[in-house]
Structure formats: C-alpha cells, structure tokens
Amino acid sequence: MKKMNRVLTILAGLAFVIALSFGSAGPVHAQTINGAGASFPYPVYSQWAYKYNQITGVQLNYQSIGSGGGIRQIKAKTVDFGASDAPLKKADLDEFGMIQFPMIMGGVVPVVHIKGIKPGELKLTPDVLVDLFLGKITKWNDPAIQALNPGLSIPEKDVTIVHRSDGSGTTWIITHYLTAVSSEWQEKVGASKAVSWPAGVGGKGNEGVASYVQRIDGSIGYVEFAYALQNNLTYIQLQNRAGKYVSPTKESFMAAAANADWQHAPGFYMVLVNQPGEESWPITGASFIILYKDQTNKETAAAILKFFDWCYQHGKEIALNLDYVPMPDNVIEIVQNVWAEEVQHNGKSLWK
Amino acid sequence: MVNPRKNRRYQHNKGDLFFKGLALLCAASVPLLMAGILAQLISSSSLSLKEFGFGFLTSQEWNPVTEVFGALSSTFGTIVSTLIAMIIAVPLGLVIAVFLVELAPPKISAFFGGAVELLAAIPSIIYGMWGLFIFAPIMADHVQPFLDKYFGFLPLFQGAKMGIGMLTAGLILALMILPYISSVSRDVFNMVPTVVKEAAYGQGATTWEVTRAVVLRYSLRGIVGAAFLGLGRALGETMAVTFVIGNSHRISASLFASSNSIASTLANEFTEAVEPLYLSSLVELGLVLFLITVGFQSMAQVWLWSIRKKLAD
Amino acid sequence: MHMEKLHIRPLKRRHITDYTVKVISTVGALVGLFFLTWILYEVTLRGLMALNWAFFTELPSPPGVTGGGVANAILGTVIITILAAIMGTPLGILAGVFLAEFGKGSKFSSLVRFMTNILIGVPSIIVGVFVYTLIVAPMKSFSGLAGAVSLAIIMLPVIVRTTEDMLNMVPNSLRESGLALGVSRWQVTLQIVFKAARSGMLTGILLAVARVSGETAPLLFTAMNSSYWLTSLNEPTANLTVTIFNYAMSPYADWQAKAWGASLLIMAAVLALNIFARLVTRKKVT
Q: Is B276 on the interface with A (CB under 8 A)?
C-alpha cells in the first residue's frame, strides 16, 4: 500500500504540474463555488447560478445528486455547501458545527401517466394515495378510485409506482406527508430520505422519476412541481386537511407556507406537510442550504453568502417563474442575522 | 579509460540494476493494487461487517430508515441478470462463431469479424441509453405482452409490463457480451488444426458433423474460457444495467419486475448514503461484488492455464 | 441397390441436419448483426440531430434555458483521459517489460501475470469506490485528478498484458545480437526490443485509451461533473460520460437530445481510436 501510494503520489504530482500549466493557459481564474445536493430545487438553483455567472463571473457549480448526497458530501467537506430538502435536526448540526437555512419553498406533487387522463383531472384522497403507494391498489380502475372520479373513464391498467432510487428530500417530504395521514404507512414504511418502498421502480433524481413516469403507461410517481410543469406531467388534485380538493399551484403552496413559524424553529428545522387552511396544498416543503460555521477559505465563504444574498434579493422572479415560492422578507432577515452571528473565518464574522 | 571494458561493465550493471529495479517496482504495483483494493474495501466496510456478520449475505432487507442492510436482493439481481445474459449470449455467440469460421466466405467473415470486434468497444453507457430509450418501449409494447399471452402461466412472465426490469437488463447484457463471446470463440475455432478438419471433410463429413465432432470437441475448453470472460464482464457491468433494471431492492419471481444489481445499487446510492452504517454496507456490497468477480476470474485463469499446459504437452 | 438405399437415406438426413445448422448459424449471425447495426443506427441518427456549433463550443445551459453545449465536458474527458494515459502507460509498460524481459518463469511474475488478468476483470465501479476512499475522501474534494487515477488503474493491466505479449513476439536473436555487441540490458530493451515491438505496443496503448475514454462508472464518484470549464484538477471536472448519464436520465427533451449527441461523439471517438490502432499494426506487419 505504502509503495503504491508513493508511486501514485509521484505520478499525481507529475500530472498536477501538467495540469497547472494547462490551467494557467485557460481563461482567467474565476471564483468557483462547488455545491451539491437536493434535486428538488435544481431548476431554480441552476438558473440562479447561470444568471449570476453572467452578471458577476462567479461560477457556482451545483450538482443535483440528491439531498442525502448533499448532507453526506458537506459532512465529508468535499463540497463548499450542501443542499437538502430534509432539514437536519439542531443537535445534528451542532455536532458537526454546521448551520442550515431555508432557501426556497415548493410543493411535491404526485404525477400519473394514464392514457386519456389530463393534468388536474384525477382526484385522490390521502387514503387512496397511501393505498396506491403501499401497493394495495394495483389497477387504475379500482372502485376506490372510480368512486372519487365519477366523470372520468379510467382504463384497466396496472399501477406502477415510480419512486426515488437515491437518498432524497423529495422522498423525505412525501413520506412525511404519508406518515402524517396514515398510521399504516408510519408502521410499515416510515418517513426518511430513502425508505424501503413496498412496490415499484426507482429513478435517480426528480429527473429520473419524471422520465420514468413519462415512459411507463400506468405509472404514478412524485416530483417537485417545477419538474411536473416543465415536462407536462399529469399532476392530480389532492384532498387537503380541510377536506377540499386542491390543485398544485404557486398560490396553494404559498397558502401552506404562510402558516410556517420560522422564528421559533430551532436550526430552521421545519416540516411543512399537511398544513391547515382551505387553500393549502398538503405536500409542501422547504429546501435548505447547509454550511460550516467555521469557514477555512474566506473568499469562498464570502462568495457563497453573497450569492445566496443575491438569490434572496434578486432571484424571486426566476423562482416564481419556475413555480417555487421565494422566502418572505422577514424570514430572509432572520436567516441573515444567523449568518452574521454564526458564519465565521478565524473568529471574524463574514457577513456585515 | 585504463580498463574500458571493466569500467563499462560496471556502469552497465548499475544501469541494468536500476532499470530492473524500476521494472520490478512497476510490476509489483499490480498485486499491490489488488491487495490495496481488497484492504480498502474491507476496512471501509468494517462497521457493517461487525453489525451484520454473515447475515449480510442472506438478508434481503435493504432499509435505510431502520438501517438494516443485506446483500441478497442486489446479489440476486446481479446473478439473475447475468444468467439471462449467458443463456442467450453463449449459444448465439457460438452460432455466430460457427458462421464466421465454417460458413462465411473469407471476405464476409473478415468484415463480420472486424465489425464484431469494434462493437465490443462501444462504451456501455451507450447500450444503456439505447436500452432505455429504444429497447424498453418495444419490450413494454410488444415483447412483454407476447410473453404474457403465451407464457403467462409461468410466474416468470407475470406482472406489470413496464419495459424496464430484470428481463430487459439481462437482454441488454446479452447484447453487450455477445461480441466478446463470439470473437473469443472464433479465435478458438480458428486454432483447430486445419489438417484434422480437412481429413474429416475428405471422408465426406458435412459442415455440421465437422463442427460437432472436430471443432467443438477441440475447442470445448476454450469456449468455457470465453464464457467465463463474458460472465466476468456481465457481473460487474454498471451503466447499461442501471439504466434499465428499475433500481428497486426486491426479489421477485417475475422477470418483468424491477430489480437491482450490486453495481447499479452502488451507482445510485454511493454518493448519497449519509449514515456511516449505510455507507459501510454499500462498501461491503462492493466487497461482495469484488470477491465474486475475482473468484470467477481466478477460475477462468486456472482453466485457461490448464488448457495451455495441455496444448503444450 | 438395397445397399445404396441404406446409404442414401442417412445421407439425406445428414444433409438436412447440416442444412438446418447452416441456416441457424446464418440467422444467428444476422440477428447479432441486426441488433448491433440497430444500435449504431439509432445513436448516429439521434446524435447527428443534436450536433451543432454551440454543442462543441458552449457551456451547458440550465434546464429551461435553450441553447448551450457540452464543450467543457469534451475538454474534460480529453484531459482526464490523457492524464490517465500519462499515469498508466509508463507504469504498465515497465511492468510488462519486467514480465517479458526479467521475470520469465519466476513465481513472482506468475503472481503478477495472474493478478493482471484478474485486475482486468475487476468491475470499474469498484475502482471508483476504491479511488473515492483513497483520494476523494482524504482530499475532501471530487476532482478530475481522482477521475484520472481511477481510469489509470483500469488502463494499467491492459497495457501490462499487451506490452508483455508484444515483447514476447520479438525474437530472442535480436536481444542476443545486441547483448553480444556489449550493449547493456536496459539499452537493448529500450532501443532494440522496443523498436521492434513499437507498433504493437502503440496499438495496446491506443486500445486501452479507447476503453477508458468511454468509462462512466468510475467517474461518478471521482470526477463527478461540473457546468463550467475546469480551472484546476482539484475540483469536480466536467466529462462526457457522466454528462450523458445525467442528461439521459433527465426529463428535458433538450438535454436528452444532447445526451444522444454526446453518445455519438464518444462512440465515434472510441471506434476511430480502435480502427486507427488496428491500422497501426497492419501497416507494420505488411
């Protein structure tokens, strides 16, 4: 091992020298920030990064590898920031000396692919949704579904569940919802970033689930709303806690998000599913950024905070265009107070 | 310059010694690398080795919520998809080799042979793309309904017709290893002494009789070697399988059902796993795959070595 | 008369069997060829539709923003592959030299030879896991360098084996005449034996490069991917194969088209390298 390491080191050194000469010949070295994690906010983060790069030249490389991956890679310090839709508990954050803050909110929507059914036509109750994901309802023309949709002609087609194959905040949000509405789900499956699904196929990322749903007739999956819209997937109407059928829209996400009390959430730990309110979409969630409190590289750390500040202040329009819900101003203020207090380099605060 | 010969020899020896030493070091890097991989896999999976012991191999549970992990479902997927590939690719590869060696005119044979070798070089991710976008819909719309209609009484061909799943993965793997098996078999067939074949033809034997009685008998061991090589490749294939196998941790009697192989589990979950035990279990899965492939490769090596020895005698 | 009939009947049956077998093997060959041309056809057709100037010159654009290309991934793949060759080739050639020139018949070289053949069969994803634990985790960054190291590990045994095979084909008389002239062993190897085996070794290296340039699995956990030009090798580096994986699994038609384009590109490059490698040998032989 030692010998091999040495050989490798020598070769790596050689390669590095070559690489350096390559690098210096390339374009002027720009500030680069590496982030990875949740695929739920990927469309909005990547558009923010694209726009910000055009304005400032700062390169924010965000790789959508799943929330589990985001947490894992920030803990291993292989990225500058992690992103996750599944918030970490305060104790977990403290153990690693990290903070998290909400960046954006949005909704997770069940999407189906059934011949002849258009977006927003199919109505489901929480119970039926749970039975579908538990694999108890196996045909789309099941009486339980027919009864909720008297006007629709639903074909006799096998139900294929499409779930995430990777550790995912989207899974975290929907399984928290399913756990909140069904004790059977809680007992048999539970809520986490990755669960042991009773049935179905797994796709990697929101992208993977969306593309399987597009490809498989008779499938039902769950994706972040922007993915459903951008790909013209067939979303459903879902009965909320108030007993009303609601469609996933910006407005119904906002209605659900409006009840959130961020001020009193330790470490910004917040579960937004199954919120009260007539207009509320029941499966909503926030997406979080995770950073180390003690930053070793001052420039990178400052660039990260600047970027997220720009997103908070100037990224609202992009977010709304993609049907995400931007954080309200009062929450941004709380977040930036936390930045000022906690994010430091050599004991000095990096934010005003 | 007093005694040039002696002086030169001394320098040569020094140069030779250095050169030999350097070459030795480089040669040693291969076994060291193997040992390094094994050591690294074992040490990184120590947590799960300790937690689950041998039960890891026999448990089909893969539950990140309760943190209970077992290798059975992934191992099952790896073995079954490889088995499907072998059942299809070995006979088909042999038939192609017979065609190339005994039937086709030399020019066609050379063209086919060259094409087959190039196709073995196509990156596996391209097989995966093709499998997902082009082959899977055909499976769902035509092949699976057909199998269900005529063979649906078998549990193998029941269930939802999604297009992706164990059967599709096995078929794509078969396509991938087909060039491998046919080109090695062709080489083995070509090694049969022409004199023996000519003698048989001279006695009035037909092509098939020559193939069966002479060629196949002569090259049986070589064919087994070819099959081993194809097997090794299929067992560890990642990208082509990840695209079409469906990525779910379940053991199902139906070949239509989605499944998972060890390699595809790693591709999907390795960068995601947060909890130390989860990560360690994934590395242990890698260890299982490593040992399976090393086992098969070793068997293949010993087998080929024994042929060479026999030929030499 | 009676005798002849007896003889003819089995002969007829024999011919029928023979005919059937011929038909089966021809059909088998055609089936194989059909699938393989089908793959080539689809990749070429769909790939060509995605290729345009921007594809080769621009950075990727986020979903929802049209245009953009994979220029950084093309460059990244080229750099990672060249680096892997720089690391793997000298190591592999020297190891091959040891086996062919110094280690004939020794137990150690049997071990090395055996391990080389086994290392060829180690799944590339395992190499990825290994390099992640060896380089990425301790260095705390995904990097192009780690990607290159994992590709070098995959190249290594291929080069060892072809080098040894090629050197073994060099007649011993060449070595002996060199040594008889008083040239030292290492000079004989470098100047005489290498010259004789040059084209074969080059073919081996080119084939090894072709093989690793299409690898995806070992890059997933090492080089990862990036949406920008690479500025150093210590950061996530864009590359074609991981880009294909991400784009193909995405639901955006635009990205899927680019995945086909990138597939065509990598396939054409790999096939061209293979054909070139074969031409190198052929020219030398004839």
A: no
Q: Give chain A positions within 8 Å (CB) of B158.
A: none
Which residues of chain C neighbour B41 with C-beta distances below 8 Å? 126, 129-130
Residue B176 contacts C where some CB pair is shorter than 8 Å: no
pLDDT, average across residues B37-63: 92
* Average pLDDT of the residues in A47-55: 92
Residues in B closer than 8 angstroms to A200, CB to CB, are 248, 258
Q: Tell me what ipTM this predicted complex has.
A: 0.89
**Residue C8: inside a domain:** no
Range of the domain at C129: 53-285
- DSSP-based three-state secondary structure for B68: strand
- Answer whether residue B45 is part of any domain: no
Q: Is residue B15 part of a domain?
A: no
Asked whether the predicted pLDDT for residue A40 surpasses 60, the reply is yes
CATH number, residue B307:
1.10.3720.10
| Per-residue pLDDT reduced to its tens digit, B137-160 | 899 889 988 998 899 888 888 877
Q: Is the pLDDT of residue C9 over 60?
A: no
Confidence at residue C178, expressed as pLDDT on a 0 to 100 scale:
86
**Number of domains chain B contains:** 1
Chains near B (3 or more Cβ pairs under 8 Å): A, C
For B131, the domain range is: 66-312
Q: What was the pLDDT predicted at A261? A: 86
Q: Domains in chain C: how many in total? A: 1
**Using a CB-CB distance cutoff of 8 angstroms, which residues of chain B are in contact with residue A191?**
65
Higher-pLDDT residue of B84, B192: B84
Neighbours of chain A (3+ CB pairs under 8 A): B, C
Residue C118 has a pLDDT of 92
C73 touches chain A (CB under 8 A): no
Task: Flag whether C211 is in a domain.
Answer: yes
Report pTM. 0.85
